[in-house]
Amino acid sequence: MHRILGTRRILFALMLCVMAIGSVDAQQSLTITSESIQGSASATLDIDLTSTADTEGFVLAIGIDQTLLAVNDLSILGTATDAAGAELAVAEVFANGATLGVVLDSVTPFNGQVIAAGTDQTIARLSVTAQQLVTVSTDTAVTFLDGVLNSPPLSNLLVQGGLSVDANGGLGLNDGLVTLLPPPPSSLIIENASVDSDSTGAVRILLDNDGTDTQGFVLSVAHLAADVTLESIDISGTVTETVGAELVVPQIFPNGGTLGVVLDFSAPFGGQAIPAGLGTHIANYNYSCNATIEEPAPALTTPLSFADGQFGSPALENLLVIGGTSVNPGLTGGTLTCDAVPPPPASDTVFSVGPRELPTTGAAIGECFPGEEFELCLFYTDPTDSPQGLQMALCFDSDLTIVEGSFTVEGTIVDEMGAEFINQNVDNDPNDGDGSELLIGILMDALPPFENQMLPATATPLMIGCVQAIVSPTAACGDVLAIDFCNDINGAGSVDLKNIAVINYNSELGIGFEGGGCMIVPETVFRRGDCNMDQMLDLSDAATTLGYQFEGLIVGCKDACDANDDGKLDLADSVYILNYLFIFGPTMPAPGPLTPGPDPTEDNLGCAVTPTC
Fold first, then answer.
1. Is the pTM of this model over 0.85?
2. CATH code assigned to 187-339
3. Which CATH number fits domain 346-520: 3.40.430.10, 3.90.1750.10, 2.60.40.1120, 2.60.40.680?
4. Half-sphere exposure of 493 toward its Cβ, with a 13 Å CA cutoff?
5. Which residues fall within 8 angstroms of residue 373, CB to CB, at 6 or more apart?
6. What is the C-alpha to C-alpha distance for residues 36 and 15, in angstroms, rounded to an integer?
7. Are 74 and 98 spatial neighbours (Cβ–Cβ below 8 Å)?
8. CATH for 522-613?
9. Was domain 2-181 assigned CATH 2.40.50.140?
């Protein structure tokens, strides 16, 4: 309301000015200067006055194409009008233009302020902003518009000597022009970076945009999954973070990642944006190298590239949001170099794994059968140092399953020396992307009063503990099911661990390894009590047992005839079979009689049956 009243006040004042009777030289003009705008930037156009008489007031009414431009302001600040001390100036801004009414001397003591006659004096300034991003140069007129804008509609005029001069009275009105130019080329750049191959490092994403502010962006970057792993994407330490981005959405894929950012996403909509500039740091892609490279091996350099339409659902493209419009920028890829690191210090600690008898036999590979549960033991040697702790990281064949919770140090040097922290972590899933893994952690002195327990130095392998392993029933004859020491594995957790010995409170990484395992060998199987080997247990088996004992009958599997599993073949075995069949006596010892299997009892009877796997 106050603006409407202000406009009416101007009109009233101007009416008073022009009530006098007389004439004014009309060879005068108003001119709107021309400007250009690149992208969605703003520009200021001067409204210049050429007059042959002093000007006591004026009205401006200026129209624009609102689809291409928006008026920010129509002001006298810093103009000849301002310098003359204008006492009343009221501007109105509309979607399609703006008006400005000015009276130089409107309040007491009426000192007679005027804009002196002259040529090309700037009396007002019109500020406009581009509303569209154009792809080719586009001209749009900025015009003097009589009888359209405001209520009541205003026309362009000057007040001189108390009289009005308008277009009908000879006032020249020279329109202006704004040329909209395409925004300057914008580019996204992946900055080349390097990282130690045993650590994680950031690759910076940079933005070149010297035209106008960026209101949001989408990044989609691909890498070689065989070389590096994308650990995370963030905006830490970037201009994006500094200006207060309100929506940040990262997504990570096996061979790449995307980041979507909207700077001003939620109320109160403060207009956050990334200012124009070159080399602006907008995001971080954080990678780790898939393998540790030790000197003097060469560094590994892997390409990083912007990848449109590859990641996400729907697939995302790299773009910038400028002036509310999506812009496809230029894309410049980069590289990540995994640098070689010094090899770990040499250590004379050696870890080994194998049967319990390994220290005396030296054989790390034992024999096993499909479906068998057997024991694997872990050992260490260190002839010069006394370890304070051991960290073992092992990977094992997918046909092996480690029994969780089966690790025991009972009867070992670890038990004897009083270890205070012992932990086992097992990953038995061979299909989770990193294979099957076993982690063992032992710290000798972990609790008060901290008496610095240590393991002794030894040149002979000393056992630290054993686990139970189960062979897959489908394991093939002749296969060696290996269990080896492997660095940088995480078991069922999320922290990658290496094989280390803790000596003098330091981690020694140069550990020697001696892997082990077992070889699948053929296994003799039979049914207990099936003395005639016809795959059934019945009266004929009792008769076969008696025939062997008293008539010299030859049998093919003495273990099968040993019905009571006492390691001998005698009358008791035939009685055992008859009791089982007809008097519902005790169930026969394993294996059988229904399911064949190996003899769990050591004896000298033997079984002339073709072994199977």
1. no
2. 2.60.40.680
3. 2.60.40.680
4. 13
5. 403, 468, 469, 470, 471
6. 37
7. yes
8. 1.10.1330.10
9. no
**Strand, helix or coil for residue 309:** coil
How high is the pLDDT of residue 8?
Answer: 46
Tell me, what's the pLDDT at 14?
A: 46
Tokens, residue 540: 């004929």
User: How many beta carbons lie within 10 A of that of residue 519, not counting itself?
Assistant: 14
**Number of helical H runs and strand E runs in the chain:** 8, 39
CATH 2.60.40.680 domain position(s) in the chain:
2-181, 187-339, 346-520
Residue type, 559: D
Mean pLDDT for 24-44 is 84
pLDDT digits (tens, 9 = 90+) for 564-605: 999 999 999 999 999 999 988 888 898 878 877 788 888 888
CA 68 – CA 238 distance, rounded (Å): 33
Nearest-angstrom CA–CA distance, 425 and 413: 21
- Are 480 and 413 in contact by the 8 Å Cβ rule? The answer is no
Ranking 16-20, 148-152, 234-238, 347-351 by mean pLDDT, the lowest is 16-20
By residue count, the chain amounts to: 613
Contact 296, 340 (CB under 8 A): yes
- DSSP alpha helix (H) spans, 103-176: none
For the chain, the C-alpha Rg in angstroms (whole number) is 46
> 99 pLDDT exceeds 90?
yes
Query: Per the structure block, which two tokens stand in for 366?
Result: 């034992």
